[in-house]
Design brief:
120 residues; Nucleotidyltransferase, domain 5; 5-stranded mixed β-sheet
Length: 120
């Protein structure tokens, strides 16, 4: 019979191997003092140039929704689908609102990625 530490170690390996690593391009995010950590299904990046990107691929606002629906269909449980919006802090807020509206039409959660407030 396997010991409890062996079982826990195997579960840890399983979750590490099956989890999706999130890559966000390096740019300055809005600041927040919130410590909330949310699950990530897909990251929509909005860069300094105002372009939308999913997995490094540039998208127009029209092709963004179909790409997100495609991502949602590949997930095992679509109820847990969450769109993380990583937007450069100085872009027009309308770009972020476009992604939030798409999430609303898809009936999924959307969260805004932020960075910690620098003290000092």
């Amino acid at each position: 019979m396997a010991s409890l530490t062996d079982v826990i170690f195997l579960l840890l390996i399983f979750f590490v191997l099956t989890s999706k690593l999130v890559k966000i391009s390096p740019f300055e995010l809005p600041e927040s003092d919130s410590k909330t950590v949310a699950p990530v299904s897909v990251v929509v990046e909005i860069g300094e140039d105002g372009r939308y990107r999913i997995n490094g691929e540039a998208k127009t606002v029209r092709s963004l929704e179909s790409a997100l629906r495609s991502e949602k269909s590949t997930l095992g449980n679509p109820k847990d689908f969450t769109i993380t919006i990583a937007a450069f802090k100085d872009i027009p807020y309308e770009k972020v609102v476009d992604v939030i509206q798409i999430a609303g039409r898809m009936r999924v959660r959307a969260i805004l990625a932020t960075q910690e407030v620098e003290e000092g």
